[in-house]
Write a structure and sequence with these properties.
It contains 20 helices and 16 strands. It has 506 residues and is an alpha+beta fold. It is elongated and about 110 Å long.
């Protein structure tokens, strides 16, 4: 006969069984361990009556059957207490049930007729996260704020965080906060601001430090209340420095949309997303109000596009693309960095094609857009390189016949002209002639571009000496174009002694 397996039920590991039984014994001796303590005088403590009921249950702490019976009727929290104490009375826990929570699975023992959250909260009364499961409905119904500290729970009839709780929450925050409550960059242009009213604390996280976490929900994760966030304010500050202009439109009052703020308060978006979406809203408002504005990092250049372009830092290709775009028509460009790769990424969604048109023709960049794994900045750089290569190579003669040495020298020269020294070295690695004349030609190219010393060991003394002689002819070839290139290549072949002739394509 096959064994029946119950979903969510498993045999109890010995270590966990020992831990649960020990906690059960502790609760049997002192039911108040399970309840919050008043942090300040309350109008009426809702836990006094519960504690008296638990103390009555405590009298039967040695009677497992009686405790299980008590765990089947009456107040749910008292039931959870009776069920938990019954574990020690029975002396064993053969099976556990597993409940999946947002933080992962948790194992607990089912006894009587008790809500699962209450059972988990009671059986893990010393866990600052899990024990709150038993008190959410009480906090909502009685309009309480219950703060779960490492050492226990504190209760208040108003949003007033205990000092120890504040210290623990800040220590457990997802950022290494400084003494001033900032991430270390309090003057950054874009800041998430979280104010904790009862703690008289203000926290700030810049856009560079903000991650895929929600700071507000980290701070409130151990607070049970109707609205755990009611003691907090949330805002975003955007304050770039005005450079050589006045009446900056960024100084005008602006408030993020209520939909965005609500999404953050509900925990459906993280810190980085909040800042990104705020900037989208702010940028749209600035575009409507100003029509033209250029901002890099902490510096606002107003409508001075030339000062904006001059401040860009990055590759020639990206600077060319950005400069061409902003010069073509007035626009709003807001980036958190002066690095061109970041500016290109910020502009990509709305202006990728106009950006690429500044550095290459559509027949070149359209093929690159299909390579989705390339970051925007690299797409611009590659389009720029390919366009430059095409322009350079178009100025060189085409051949129908070159011969072996002619093909080698022509290929290496074109690689250098289109892709620089790096392209030449790659072409050399792809084309390694075995006969001495060809190896001397290769060494001549290495001498001409200053790379001979790093690869000299690959050549014989005779090949090196011949290559040094040929290097002057190589330099002339690398500097030439058009008819001069054809003449330089012929001189190169004559000097090499190859005896080959070139046939130009008509």
């Amino acid at each position: 006969m096959s064994r029946v397996r119950f979903r969510g039920v498993k045999a109890t590991p010995k270590g966990l069984e020992k831990d649960l039984l020990e906690k059960s014994r502790r609760l049997a001796l002192d039911p108040s361990l399970m309840l919050p303590k008043c942090d300040q005088p309350c109008r009426r403590c809702p836990f006094d009556k519960l504690l008296k009921k638990m103390e009555k249950v405590e009298r039967y702490s040695d009677d497992a059957e009686a405790l299980i019976s008590m765990a089947s009727h009456g107040d749910q929290l008292v039931r959870a207490y009776a069920a938990t104490v019954s574990l020690a009375a029975s002396g064993k826990i053969p099976f556990l049930t597993v409940k999946q929570l947002p933080t992962g699975g948790v194992s607990f023992a089912v006894r009587g007729k008790v809500d699962q959250e209450k059972l988990i909260g009671a059986q893990y009364f010393d866990d600052p996260d899990l024990r709150l499961l038993a008190f959410w409905d009480i906090a909502r119904d009685d309009d309480l704020h219950i703060y779960s500290e490492e050492a226990g729970m504190k209760c208040s009839d108003s949003p007033k965080a205990p000092k120890a709780f504040v210290q623990e929450a800040l220590a457990n925050a997802p950022y290494e906060l400084q003494a001033d409550g900032s991430c270390g960059h309090p003057n950054a242009p874009l800041l998430l601001l979280v104010g904790w009213k009862s703690a008289s604390t203000k926290l700030s996280v810049c856009s560079e430090c903000a991650g895929d976490v929600n700071l507000l929900h980290s701070l409130t994760s151990r607070i049970a209340a109707r609205d755990p966030t009611d003691d907090f304010t949330v805002d975003v500050r955007y304050s770039p420095r005005c450079v050589a202009h006045s009446e900056c439109p960024t100084k005008a009052p602006f408030t993020m949309s209520s939909e965005l703020k609500d999404s953050y308060r509900k925990g459906t978006i993280d810190d980085a997303t909040l800042l990104d979406r705020f900037l989208v809203e702010r940028k749209a408002a600035l575009r409507r109000s100003s029509g033209e504005l250029y901002i890099l990092g902490n510096d606002c250049y107003g409508r001075d596009k030339e000062a904006f372009i001059k401040a860009l830092k990055g590759s020639e290709a990206e600077v060319t693309a950005i400069a061409g775009l902003v010069r073509s028509s007035p626009m709003v460009v807001i980036s958190s960095s002066d690095q061109t790769s970041k500016v290109v990424a910020d502009l990509w969604a709305e202006a990728k094609e106009p950006l690429l048109n500044q550095v290459a023709s559509p027949d070149i960049w359209k093929g690159l857009l299909g390579q989705s794994n390339m970051p925007p900045g690299l797409v611009v750089q590659e389009a720029y390189r390919l366009q430059r290569c095409k322009g350079i190579l178009d100025k060189l003669p085409q051949y129908s016949s070159r011969g072996q040495m002619g093909a080698l020298a022509d290929d290496l020269a074109r690689a250098f002209k289109s892709s620089g020294k790096g392209g030449l070295l790659q072409a050399i690695d792809r084309n390694k002639p075995k006969e001495h004349r060809g190896k001397a030609v290769v060494f001549g190219f290495l001498v001409a571009v200053g790379e001979a010393d790093s690869r000299a060991w690959q050549f014989t003394t005779e090949e090196r000496d011949f290559g040094k002689y040929l290097s002057d002819f190589v330099k002339a070839l690398l500097d030439a174009s058009g008819d001069a290139y054809h003449e330089a290549l012929e001189n190169m072949l004559t000097a090499s002694g190859s005896g080959e002739s070139l046939q130009r394509r008509c």
